[in-house]
C-alpha cells in the first residue's frame, strides 16, 4: 500500500472531522501479515491514528500458517475490532483510544482514533520495570471487573487469538500427546469458568503504552477481544513481560498484585460480588490458562522461546490439577 500526504481519502476524512489540512503522515508499522498499515496523521490542529486495513486475497504468515481458516480468522478479527471501537470503547473505563470514525468498505477498513501519544501515553516499553507491570495489571483488573457478565455481541464468543476452535491446524501439528489429549477439556474448563468477562485477547506488553513515569497504561489492538476467562489475559501478559528465568520468582507477585487491584475494581464496578469468591474461582485457573496457551504455541512454533522449563512445569501442574479435580 502506497501512503502519500496527498492521499485524497485521508484528506477527505480529516476534513470531515474539521481538522483542516494534513501536514504529514508517519507509517508507525505495517499490520500483521501485510494486511495494511498503522498511520499517524499530523493535521493542522492535532494528530490522529488511522488503522488502515487492506486484506490481501491470501494471508502469508512467517510461520507458514496460510490456510483459508487463517484468512477467515484474520478477517473476522478486524470486524471484531471495528465493533469494539464503535460500540464498546466509549464506555470502557480502563484507558483505550477513543474512536473518531470507522469506515467499513470490506475488505478495506479504516479506524480513525485518538493519538494516545498526544494524550500523554508517550512510552512504548520493551523491557518492563515493576511500575510498568503494575500499570498493566491495574488496567487488566479494571477491564475484567467492569465487564463481568456484560454483553459481548459482535465480539468473539471466545476471546484470544489462540482459542482452540480457531486453531485446529495448530492442534493437529502439536507433538505433545498428553497436552493434545486434554486440549478440549482445558478449553471447556476455561469456557465454563465462573464470572465470565471480556478478555482483551492479545494483552502482550507491546499492546500497552505508558505515561512518562510509567504509572498509567493504555491498551490498543482489540482484534481478539471477547468473552473468556480473565486468566487468559494474565498469562499472555506475563509471557510477554517477564523474563522466563524470572517467572517462578515473579508469579506470586504478579498474581497477588492483580488480585489486589481486582478487589478494588470489583468494589467499584461489581459491589454485589464477593472479591474473595471471584479470586477463589479464578486463581486456580492460572496454570490451566497457561496450558491452553502452551497448546497453541507448541503447535504453532515448537521452537518458540515462550516454551521453556517454567511453561512446561506449569502445564504439567495444570494437567495434574485437571486429573484430580475434573
Automatic annotation (TrEMBL):
<protein>
    <recommendedName>
        <fullName>CHK kinase-like domain-containing protein</fullName>
    </recommendedName>
</protein>
<dbReference type="InterPro" id="IPR015897">
    <property type="entry name" value="CHK_kinase-like"/>
</dbReference>
<dbReference type="Pfam" id="PF01636">
    <property type="entry name" value="APH"/>
</dbReference>
<dbReference type="InterPro" id="IPR052961">
    <property type="entry name" value="Oxido-Kinase-like_Enzymes"/>
</dbReference>
<dbReference type="InterPro" id="IPR011009">
    <property type="entry name" value="Kinase-like_dom_sf"/>
</dbReference>
<feature type="domain" description="CHK kinase-like">
    <location>
        <begin position="111"/>
        <end position="268"/>
    </location>
</feature>
<dbReference type="InterPro" id="IPR002575">
    <property type="entry name" value="Aminoglycoside_PTrfase"/>
</dbReference>
Amino acid at each position: 500500500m502506497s501512503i502519500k500526504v496527498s492521499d485524497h481519502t485521508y484528506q477527505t476524512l480529516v476534513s470531515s472531522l474539521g481538522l483542516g489540512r494534513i501536514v504529514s503522515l508517519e507509517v508507525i508499522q505495517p499490520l500483521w501479515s501485510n494486511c495494511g498499515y498503522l498511520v499517524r496523521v499530523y493535521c493542522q490542529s492535532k494528530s490522529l491514528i488511522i488503522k488502515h486495513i487492506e486484506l490481501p486475497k491470501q494471508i502469508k504468515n512467517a510461520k507458514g500458517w496460510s490456510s483459508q481458516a487463517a484468512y477467515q480468522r484474520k478477517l473476522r478479527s478486524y470486524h471484531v475490532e471495528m465493533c469494539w471501537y464503535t460500540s464498546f470503547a466509549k464506555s470502557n473505563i480502563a484507558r483505550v483510544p477513543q474512536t473518531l470514525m470507522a469506515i467499513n468498505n470490506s475488505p478495506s477498513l479504516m479506524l480513525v482514533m485518538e493519538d494516545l501519544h498526544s494524550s500523554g501515553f508517550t512510552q512504548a516499553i520493551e523491557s518492563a520495570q515493576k511500575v510498568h507491570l503494575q500499570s498493566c495489571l491495574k488496567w487488566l483488573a479494571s477491564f475484567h471487573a467492569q465487564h463481568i457478565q456484560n454483553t459481548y455481541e459482535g465480539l468473539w464468543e471466545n476471546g484470544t487469538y489462540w482459542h482452540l476452535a480457531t486453531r485446529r491446524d495448530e492442534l493437529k501439528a502439536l507433538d505433545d500427546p498428553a497436552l493434545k489429549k486434554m486440549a478440549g477439556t482445558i478449553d471447556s474448563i476455561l469456557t465454563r469458568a465462573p464470572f465470565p468477562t471480556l478478555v482483551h485477547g492479545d494483552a502482550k506488553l507491546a499492546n500497552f503504552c505508558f505515561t512518562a513515569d510509567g504509572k498509567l497504561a493504555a491498551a490498543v489492538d482489540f482484534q481478539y477481544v471477547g468473552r473468556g476467562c480473565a486468566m487468559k489475559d494474565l498469562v499472555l501478559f506475563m509471557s510477554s513481560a517477564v523474563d522466563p528465568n524470572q517467572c517462578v520468582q515473579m508469579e506470586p507477585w504478579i498474581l497477588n498484585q492483580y488480585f489486589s487491584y481486582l478487589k478494588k475494581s470489583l468494589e467499584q464496578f461489581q459491589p454485589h460480588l464477593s472479591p474473595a469468591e471471584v479470586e477463589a474461582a479464578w486463581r486456580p485457573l492460572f496454570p490451566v490458562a497457561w496450558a491452553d496457551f502452551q497448546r497453541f504455541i507448541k503447535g504453532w512454533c515448537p521452537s518458540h522461546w515462550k516454551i521453556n522449563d517454567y511453561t512446561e512445569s506449569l502445564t504439567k501442574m495444570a494437567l495434574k490439577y485437571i486429573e484430580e479435580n475434573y
